[in-house]
Amino acid sequence: MKQKNQILYQKVFDALKSDIINGKYKVGSFFPTENELEVRFEVSKITVRKALDLLVEGGYLHRQSGMGTKVISNQPINVFNKAKTFTKILKDHGVDVQTAVVYIGKSENATINEKFDVDNVYEIHRVYQLDGVASIFVKHYFPLTKSEFLPEKGAKQFSFYSFLVKQGFEIFNMEDAFCAEKTPKQLTKILPKVSDVVLNRTRSAYTEMGQLVEYTTSYYDSGTTPYLIDYQV
User: Fold this and answer.
1) What is the pTM of this model?
2) Environment class of residue 88 by beta-carbon count within 10 Å: exposed (0-12), middle (13-18) or buried (19+)?
3) Residue 133, phi then psi, degrees to nearest 5
């Protein structure tokens, strides 16, 4: 019976997590009550509570006594660790963060394309403005499976990890590599006020089967805005 209950609450958790990531429950909205979820899934209260506990631990929900449960994030990245994202830290420090997609297209970078096991590799470029100054440039490379979910150029409310979920990928692990380097000449056209040295972060993300589904290079003007990491322990 114990094993059966474990399977049930995992199924409920998976279904609710998918609902949140895919926008059924909006960030800031109240989540269904335990009673409503019991009826929907036809399971016991203890099964529902275990599933909700996992969503709270994953950073998707926040419970407040007497106030109900709210959706606080729809980002798949929550499942990997409890570290705040860099942009979330900046916002917490009062920095106005604005982002926009500036390019979408098929990758012509042969070196990066070889890292993937597929031919249809695409890239999305984004620029982040911090307090009105272009300070971060990001290039996402990924295997495209469903073109209908590609963002439009200029899109400001774009989550790359939610996009990967819609592509049918579930990320199992990530690897980040950092290095400081002299600012590439072409980067000065994208970040006009960039410092002479930038922080380059390379991220690789894999499925449980080891398939590479993300290769992202990000350039940070860390001379102006230091790269901060805030871990919850």
Assistant:
1) 0.71
2) middle
3) -115, 125
Report the DSSP pairing between strands 61-64 and 68-71: antiparallel
> pLDDT tens across 117-170, in order?
899 999 999 999 999 999 999 999 999 999 999 999 999 988 888 788 788 887
Round to whole Å and give the CA distance between 62 and 130. Answer: 28
Q: How many CA atoms lie within 13 A of 11 on its CB side?
A: 11
The token duo for 93 is 């420090």
Q: Which amino acid appears at position 154 of this protein? A: G
pLDDT tens digit sequence for 51-107: 998 888 777 888 877 788 998 888 776 544 555 678 878 988 899 999 999 999 999
Instruction: Provide φ and ψ at 197, rounded to 5°.
Output: -125, 135
Q: What is the pLDDT of residue 232?
A: 57
